[in-house]
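Run log, item B.
One chain of 883 residues. Sequence copied directly from the ordering sheet:
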Amino acid sequence: MATPSPLGSAARRRTPDTAPDGASQYADVPVRLDEELRRAEPPADPRSDSAVLPFLNPVEGEASGNDTRTVLIKPDGATLSALRTLAHRLEIEERALLLAAWASLRSRYTRTVNQPISVVTDGPAAPELRPTSGPLGHPVLVRLPIAAEAAFALAARAAENALATTAADEHLSGPAHRPETSFRYQRNSSSHSVELEPAEFGESPGRLHLDCWAGPAELTLIIAATGGGVAESDLVSYARALELLLADVLTDPDRAVGRLRLTDQVEQPPPQPAQQDPVLLRFLRQADRVPDAPAVRCGADVISYRQLAAWAELIAAMLHDHGIRPGDQVPVLVPATVGTPAAILGCWLAGAAFVPLDPVWPRGRTEAILRQLDPGLVLVPETVEQFSCSVDVVSLPACPPSTVTFRPRLVSGADVAYVMFTSGTSGVPKGVVIGHAELAHYAAASRLELELPDRASFAAVSTLAADLSYTAVFLPLTSGGCVRLVGADRAAEPQLLAAEFSDRPVEALKMAPSQMSALLTETADARGWLPTEVLVLGGEPLPPGLVERVAELSPRLRVYNEYGPTETTIGASCQLVRLPADPRCASVPVGTTLGGCALTVVDDSGLPLPPWVPGEVIISGPGVGIGYLDEVQAGRDGFGERGRRQYRSGDLGRLVPGAGVEVLGRLDDQVKLHDYRLEPQEIEMLLLRQRSVEAAAVVARRDDRGLATHLDAYVVRGDGHGSVQAEALRKALGRHLPPALVPTAWQFVDALPLTRNGKVDRDALPPIEVSTTASVGPDDSVVQRLLAIWSDVLGMEPISPDDDFYLLGGHSLHAMRLVSRVKEAFGTELSMASVLSARTPVAMAALVRERLSEDPDLVPLRPTRHLDGTPVSGLLGSGDGSR
């Protein structure tokens, strides 16, 4: 086929000059077609289809109004002969083959199966169109069920059947709503070729036409995008994709629609940077360069680079004394304390990798990880209370003087830096092994991308058991900056964050978009806690509106969008967000590179896709990790040889011209919930281990921004267990999962709905409505005050003393606020772990009373009020009753 030829922003085509006087010309076809569609129904939004072609939406800076862009395709003689031979072999008409190709292309761009197309039938329906030269007919709505895994030949036969029914439907009044795309096939019996000249094609925004003119020895395909706002490059790319799809069809008509080639472009990998020194070595250089500069600050605790290096060396010596040797893996409890970075560096100096454990995890989850590691000990900061497990618990030594005698072992790039555990489909957490070389690449590439000044401070406000926060740890430690660790209670309150940063603002801050959104909701002015230079948002899709709000609050702040699964070492792409946002994108694109890492969107065959076509995001480059722990332990290759590794992310994305990859969701059921990467199958497998459960399905529910908010569980009771209740299953899951991952709502069903393939039909499971318990006025003043705090934090009334925190939609950010509000109201501080385990106001009241019993004269610092502003009767101390 010839390369598609763009015809400009205003082009007109006409039939030969033999048309009778007064007859409509071929150039008027799109105008007439649009008018006929308008007559067929009331005006409607052309983008009202469930899935639209995004590049048809208006874009600022492109032509608008009535402008039309067109592209011409003229197959050569050999291609035309092959096309007509194939149609004959499939026993279908040529127009059916072309319609199937047109519909298949749209299906690939929109991932829709049963898509509407307006097909112009033979014979004009409107009286004023009857003298038209060439039989412009009546538009009929046709739906073609084209699945990605279906053979194209089947799609072509479906198109033949659909066209056969259009004659019977021609008398109908028109389609129920206006489809985004239309198709018309016209035979030209004349020996003259179709000519083109400028014209207006109509005013319908977001409408894409394919006009096919077939002659005895030629075929002309003209793609017209009407209404303006379409980039010429996008239309040319679409036409080229149609050409390549047809070429693949002619080679193998039985190839699956999802595997037909759409682009001939070859992805060029980014230049590979030089190998970087490990983070440990670069930290030690900074300790020599700025020994007295603050290295880590957490609240009032501050340690210098000199102190941090000495502390890490002492920890390494202690680990060696406990039998830790190079290549071992050391589990480390990682609260937000100055000792946590020292523990990480100490493991490295001993030649070992660290494995982060969250203090709020239930013991069952921690034990599941320890069983995979079989470690000799768990390293625990002294600040963590009442931690116990099945292996020896070793506390960190106190921070020593600046001189120690232990001579540390320096790591190499081939050594393992850390093992991060994420959710696994088998019901057991899955370990991801990251090497020092991968971490060194990320630290160097990210610092270069963010353009941070030397010795910049970076704040971490999320758990150190997830790699989202590691940007804020390893970037400053390799550049002489200060790591600012913020505890969970302070990270959830804008006022406390502002107090944290008021005297010493931070240059950079990183958090998840949902956390940023929650913080902005809590305050009218975020300037007190926003960083001065850089804000990095990652871990979730970034809504454009969130960036716009940040820009209003701090116009000079640079906002970056980072993307990267745990398997690709914190981040694999990072990009400065520029406004205004592209209206064609639901979330902000993440770019395509970070250092030597690159994102590619591929089809089911692993071939690159053109812009706007959804496919799987593949990540390649020096940031891809070593592999999964079980693979490494078994001596398998994991993710492959370093430098040639590729990781299939399972994320669905599309390439947006000039902006990079927009992540659209998941190809599987994996979700991100409250900073946890979750496989619903992990929870389902844990449920199926219960004798009382015959079958189970877990579905993540999302808010209007597409962010996962909670989980619904659907359970089929086993024989003989008809009385089992949700509370028993919640407790069983709570022994293995963090509270945030225990389903919020439960429903017992007789059977789970299944698809035709015998899989659980999750789309057929309706969201479960959660209602609060009937409110009971408590006599206990502690419970009464807590009910008011819960109502304020969760934004709902009434709340009963026995209502479950997670059933009411609570999550980790709400829990952080509860810690802060309880401290403000009662003068006592609860740990995050205790709050997450005490999931009712009554249970939390017991914790508060236990703390108050240690000092019976404690009184609340400030009266608490109901949502309507009325005060709650206060808690009286044992003294004179003053408040």
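Observations after the first pass:
- The mean pLDDT is 80.
- The two ends are 86 Å apart (CA to CA).
Flagged for discussion on Thursday.
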